[in-house]
Structure to design on (147 residues):
């Protein structure tokens, strides 16, 4: 009996830590925040398929704001930005000199739920947390996304 309850507890903990993908778009709407060594960002995904992104470089940079179109692919749980997305960091994790210029191509990133919170991105360089008064640092640490 002890072994079964221990296995059940481990299974539930693993499921919580692995996370889940949203199956529909409505939970994805909202404002996501990211704060990392190079910058702070706010990214709002609106139900009409538009987004607004604001980026402020550290220390004391001026905010740069952009807007564009986005969509959600429920099969992969990826948000796909068709235009206007600003990517601050290059492939090596360094700030891009032309970061304020939105990318010309498509950008996509996964959305995942963990411990009741939604996150967007990979966490390699930039991880957005949905701003819902959640425990972002605790949940991100538990899910292995410590930046």
């Amino acid at each position: 009996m002890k072994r079964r309850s221990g296995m059940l507890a481990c299974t539930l903990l693993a499921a919580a830590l692995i996370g889940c993908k949203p199956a529909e778009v409505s939970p994805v709407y909202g404002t996501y925040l990211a704060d990392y060594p190079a910058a702070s960002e706010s990214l709002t995904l609106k139900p009409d398929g538009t987004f607004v992104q604001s980026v402020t470089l550290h220390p004391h940079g001026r905010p740069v704001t952009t807007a564009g179109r986005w969509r959600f692919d429920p099969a992969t749980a990826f948000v796909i930005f068709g235009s206007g997305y600003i990517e601050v960091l290059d492939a090596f994790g360094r700030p891009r000199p032309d970061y304020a210029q939105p990318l010309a191509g498509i950008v996509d990133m996964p959305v995942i739920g963990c411990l009741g919170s939604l996150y967007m991105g990979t966490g390699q360089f930039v991880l957005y947390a949905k701003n819902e008064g959640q425990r972002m640092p605790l949940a991100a640490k538990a899910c292995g996304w410590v930046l």
